[in-house]
Structure formats: C-alpha cells, structure tokens
Amino acid sequence: MKIGIIGGGSVGLLCAYYLSLHHEVTVVTRRKEQAAAIQSEGIRLYKGGEEFSADCSADTNINSDFDLLVVTVKQHQLQSVFPWLERIGKTNILFLQNGMGHIHDLKDWRVGHSIYVGIVEHGAVRKSDTAVDHTGLGAIKWSAFDEAEPDRLNILLQHNHSDFPIRYETDWYRLLTGKLIVNACINPLTALLQVKNGELLTTPAYLAFMKLVFQEACLILKLEDEAEAWERVRAVCGQTKENRSSMLVDVIEGRQTEADAIIGYLLKEASLHGLDAVHLEFLYGSIKALERNTNKVF
Amino acid sequence: MKIGIIGGGSVGLLCAYYLSLHHEVTVVTRRKEQAAAIQSEGIRLYKGGEEFSADCSADTNINSDFDLLVVTVKQHQLQSVFPWLERIGKTNILFLQNGMGHIHDLKDWRVGHSIYVGIVEHGAVRKSDTAVDHTGLGAIKWSAFDEAEPDRLNILLQHNHSDFPIRYETDWYRLLTGKLIVNACINPLTALLQVKNGELLTTPAYLAFMKLVFQEACLILKLEDEAEAWERVRAVCGQTKENRSSMLVDVIEGRQTEADAIIGYLLKEASLHGLDAVHLEFLYGSIKALERNTNKVF
C-alpha cells in the first residue's frame, strides 16, 4: 500500500526503511533539504555493524494519495501537523508519539479519518538526514483509537521484516498507559539526577523515590495490576541499565523534552479527577526549569 | 578588642564594617588585591540609599594577635582555613557558616581554641572587593560549641550598632537546626524549580512536596516542636516571597551551592542513625547534577 511517514527523525527514518521493503513509502519532512536528500540517496540503516539501504520517496507536503499515514513527529510538534491532516481526504492515520499528551488532542479532534495509536519499542538514533542506527531491536505495537476498524490494515501490516514486527493490540488505553508508566518513572528522575537508568535500581533512595512517583501515576492512570506494572518498571530499568533515557539526552543536548507528553498528561488527568500529584508536579516543574536553563546562556 | 574576620565575602564585609565601629578589625582575605584594596580604601556599606564607610586593616595571613576570629567563608572553603587555625595560639573562634556541614568537622577538631558557632540573619550582597549592600536588617545569633566559656566575649560583643545586633543563645544545636530546617525546605526546591520563595506557598503541590521534605528533615534533626518549626518555614517563605534563595542564585550564576552544608549534613545524620531520607537524597542528587551542568559547556 501507499504509506506516508510524517517526520524524518529517528523513528520516521526507521519506519521508512523497513516499511519500504514491502510498501510504497514517502517520507514527509519539514525541511526541503532533508526531503531532497532522501529522494536522491534513499535511506541507509545501520544494524549490528552492517549497512543497508532502501529507495524511498520524500516530500514536504502531505497529499491525499496515501492508504496510511504514520505520524512520527514528537507530541509538541503535532499542533503544526493537525491542520495538514484536516485538509486531506479520509484515510488511516497511525500516531506513534511517546507519552500520552496527544490523547487529549485526539479525543477533541473531529475528523473523518480512521485513527490509530501505537508505541515504538525499538532503539534508534538518527545519524544524518538520510541515515538511522537501529540500536535496539523491538516492536511497534498499535491499536485502534475511537471507532476505527483495524482489520484490513492489520493484514497489510503483518508482512514485515523479522527485525521490525508490527503487532496489533486490542486495548489502546492499556497499550499506551503500559508504556507511559515506565517513562514517567524513569525519564524525569534520570534527567534530573543525570544518571543512567540502572542507577535508579542500585541507589536505594532513588528506587524508593521512584516508587512514590509510580504510586501517584498508578492512581491517576487507574492501572489494574500495580504489582505487575512495578515489576515492569524495574525490569526496564535493569534491561536498559547502561542507557541514558531520552529525557536525559534531551536535557544534555539542550532540546525541549517530552515532559508535556509524559508528565503533562498525568497532571492534566490528575487535575480532571481531583487527584494528588505532588511528586509529579515537582518533577514537571524541575524539568521545565532545566529546559529554560539549557536554552539560555547564564 | 582585636577581631580578625576571615573571608571577604558579603558576610565578612558586613561584619567588618559594623564590628570596626567598636573594635580593631582586620579582614583576612585569600586574594592579595582584596586585602590591599581594603587596607587603602576601608569598607563601604550601602543601606537604605545611603553610603557609609569605615577604616579597616586587611591581611592575607592569620596571626596570633586576635582576641576573636570570625570565620565567614563558606563551609566548602573551611578545609583550607583549618590548617591556619591549627598553627596559631589559643583564641576565640566564631564560625558563621550556613547549614551544618561544618559541625561534623568541628566535632572531630581537637584544638585548644574556644569554639563558637552562629547564624547570620542579615541580607547582604557584596558589591565589590570593598563594598557591601546591607539589603536586609537582621541579627547575628551565636552560641558556645563544646565547652567554650562565652561570658566575657558576650559582654564585649553586646555594644553594637542597633542595625547589627549580636545575640547570645544558650543552645547551639537548637540555634543551628532552627535555621537548617528552613534552608533545607526552601533552598533546594527553589533552586530546582527556579522559583521565588513565595511560590512554594502559592503552588499547592510545591507546598505539599516541601512538607514531605520537612518531615524527613524533622525526624533526622529530632526537632521537638514540629508544628512550630513548620510554621517558621512557612513564615520565612512568606516574608521572603519576592526573594531568590541563595541556592537558586548560586545555580543561576554557575557557582558551587551549599548543598553539602545543608542537605549533606542531614544525609550524613540520616545514615548514622539508619533513617530514611528519600526526598533529601533525590534533592541532593539533583542539585549536584545541576552544579555539574552549569559548570560545563554542553
């Protein structure tokens, strides 16, 4: 099928490479130079010391020709994408943002499109406008949002490279909250403490502090199985113990973090339901201060 | 009497100006240029739009001629002062550091000197090597540490300018912990959130988070009257609502903070007595990360 990938970051290039093996893919980028580079060079993917390449189209416009649009920009960039999507004919749109900040937007978004949401469990680092390093093999998991009908799309997306499985899940809320709780526990703490993920397990006070954050987030998300979720948070910390979280990397590199997508969603939900979010409010305020910090010269 | 003031920062210059009105004062500085400037120009003090000046000696050496030495350097600079103090004849030494980090050092310090500790409740901003702005009128409160005999010194220190009262207190632990609990609650939070002191009262989640920090610190310090102490923390936040805490200013200006003096003492005590310090550990780690941050170029 004809797939448009919106966004030429690490996730966008990763999706573009793998999906172009079975589909006709166009990457839609903001910058003309990146579109021109992809159009002429294709996309290179590095994996396990090897280099692969795939031909790919690219454009700076979204048109109505696509059977599926995969939106890979960050949550805080979505506002500039929505107007484009409102102008095109009815199609399938899969949103692959971190966190759940976009959920509040999608709930209020009245358009004819069939909307899907998903999570990316791959590790990927963009090396250039046309190259991506596939650093961690994982999966993409997606689900229908609202009343979308996923069956046809599901069949079309099941044929894929074994390093890039795409799995359908029936419950979008369970899918997204399952990832959000992990991000909410690990990302802000590692960004503020400037530690690798594993240190949240090995420093007892940090683990205890993370548990307090976890408990707040659990109540807000109304998670059914708290014990299972906490084990998952600990497991991810352990499996990624040598990694720097994306929020820590964003802070170090002076970029805007995904605090709104991750903590902002929880705070909005807490406020809607009159729940306490003392630790999350503090983490949010501190990360936002850090963003202001690194964006100015003292 | 002959008084030596060790340190030419804001507190050192403030003490030097006021004490020189009734005593023979020498400021001992690390830098030769500052000593030379004080020696030739004296000290200027700004207060309420007026300018005052006082003659003053200055030196870069500590000798045995003093009846009283007032140590005004920061806690993390004390280690370079101790060896000097160990070489001079027995005298009275008053330590005016923020926090209580120096208490662990003083307890282990076996010297013949009579040791006193005190707190500074003045607002003061150094304007140059020889000038200080007395921004907030307060008091100096001091107390005998260990077995020092304060009576004679107390009589000599009671004659003072009315804007610079010096008050003797009988219980050094009560005196220092009373100030520490306020600093521990206000300083790290305002530095991480980058807010003025008043915002800790007006944002409900920040107030609730500060209460959690307060409760941890109270248990560690074994404070007798928790309710009174909490009221004092709130009162100071209110009275200084438009102020930036010293730790916030240190972070903004890329200087080392007094995290060790303030939180470090509490963590050491918690560890000695097997007490929980989950929030304080997190604050300490985050402030230390911020110090590393501002001291390097990303």
UniProtKB/TrEMBL annotation, chains A, B:
Pfam families: ApbA, ApbA_C
Domain Ketopantoate reductase C-terminal: 178-291
Record bears the keyword Oxidoreductase: yes
InterPro entries: 6-PGluconate_DH-like_C_sf, 6PGD_dom2, ApbA, Ketopantoate_reductase, KPA_reductase, KPR_N, NAD(P)-bd_dom_sf
Catalytic activity: (R)-pantoate + NADP(+) = 2-dehydropantoate + NADPH + H(+)
GO molecular function: 2-dehydropantoate 2-reductase activity; NADP binding
Biological process according to GO: pantothenate biosynthetic process
Enzyme class at the top of the EC tree: oxidoreductase
Enzyme Commission number(s): 1.1.1.169
Sequence ranges assigned to domain Ketopantoate reductase N-terminal in this UniProt record: 3-146
Keywords: NADP, Oxidoreductase, Pantothenate biosynthesis
Pathways per UniProt: Cofactor biosynthesis; (R)-pantothenate biosynthesis; (R)-pantoate from 3-methyl-2-oxobutanoate: step 2/2
Gene Ontology cellular component annotations, sorted alphabetically: cytoplasm
UniProt keyword Translocase, yes or no: no
Family: Belongs to the ketopantoate reductase family.
Function noted in UniProt: Catalyzes the NADPH-dependent reduction of ketopantoate into pantoic acid.
Full protein name: 2-dehydropantoate 2-reductase
UniProt organism field: Bacillus spizizenii (strain DSM 15029 / JCM 12233 / NBRC 101239 / NRRL B-23049 / TU-B-10) (Bacillus subtilis subsp. spizizenii)
